[in-house]
Amino acid sequence: MSLLHSLIQKHYYTVIKAFKSLSLCLLCLLCVNQPVVFAQNNDAKKDLSSVKQKIEQQKAAIKLTDEQQQHIQKQLKRDDLAIAKTAAKMNDTQGKQQQTQVKIKQLNKQQQVLETKKKQQEDVLAEQIRSAYSAGHHDYLKLLLNQQGPNKVQRTLTYYQYLNDARMTSIENFEQVLIELGKIEQQQQQQAEQLQVLVAEQKQQKQAIEEKQQERKQTLKTLNSQILSSKQRLNKLEGEEKSLIQTLARIQAQLQKEKELKGLSKLKKKLKWPVRGRIAHSFGTKKQGYLRWKGVLLNAGVGKSVKTIHNGTVLFADWLKGYGLVIVVDHGEGYMSLYGHNQTLLKGVGDRVEIGEPIALVGQSGGQSQSGLYFEIRHKGKPVNPKLWCK
């Protein structure tokens, strides 16, 4: 026991020293690991906060993009309506210009007639003057004092009086012709000045419409700069088509059938296209995704007349998202025709139109990059192929 006790005492301080060293190491390890765990926890919280912030920023960006798109759509509508208003004035000015030109032609014809009369009367006066000069060697006094018989003198005086009356009548007619000719020339001057004013107005209107078109191009550029995915484009087209269907459904619900409108059932392959132009997109072809064209898109220049395919009554005439300025005509028996992307509308709701009558002007409203006419025929709300009716 004394030997064991001696060994313990001998190594006691060594054991205690080793134990203290071990404890100190453990304590150091705990002190080192604890801040690492705290740091990892803080980093995770910061990452989570950053992700949440990015999500909120993305939501805000999407919301801002939607608001910008809505603003651009409203601006596009305002541009289309401004162009329509200017184009309508320009169309009216062209009509007045044609009337003025017709009036000037009429005045020119009247002037030619009066010039002819003037020449004829100048010839008559010249002949009368020559006759008077030839017979003018004897004045009235000589005739009275000569030795000839009174009957002969009386006949001569009567002849002179007749020549004088004829000459005075010719002079009066000549003066009247000159007065009328002066009036004609004054009217011609007024009409020419009016024509110059109309031409100047037309030039200003043309400049205004070109400026509006430039504004719209900038609007379209801004709208197209916001890149849309295929799904977004599909949703956009679906929304536009849904809006059109809802509008047509509302029109159909409000429609009061007119007995004199016999529909289009007996007119297949007998109607003319509303405007001449190549078909850019045919009925039933693929439009986007599973969507297909419900009508046809006809290529045509801006300002060309859009004519109704048959007699009917205008049911709708307004701007429609995706289709621009649209006019819809009821033909009776559930048949309707639709004309979209117009520059301006020449008819209003309730107007009666006859076959071939101009109802609009071709444009590119509704966000189109090129001018053209979108054309549909529907029967009881269902789209049908226009090629079956138009030739």
From TrEMBL:
Source taxon at top rank: Bacteria
Signal peptide boundaries: 1-39
Coiled-coil stretches noted in the UniProt entry, renumbered to this chain: 41-124, 185-261
CDD domains reported in the protein's UniProt record: M23_peptidase (cd12797)
Record keyword Kinase present: no
InterPro entries: Cell_wall_metabolism_enzyme (IPR050570), Dup_hybrid_motif (IPR011055), M23ase_b-sheet_dom (IPR016047)
Keywords: Coiled coil, Signal
Gene3D superfamilies associated with the record: 6.10.250.3150, Glucose Permease (Domain IIA) (2.70.70.10)
M23ase beta-sheet core domain mapped to chain residues: 293-386
PANTHER family xrefs: MUREIN HYDROLASE ACTIVATOR ENVC (PTHR21666:SF270), PEPTIDASE-RELATED (PTHR21666)
Entry protein name: Peptidoglycan DD-metalloendopeptidase family protein
Source organism of the structure: Thalassotalea psychrophila
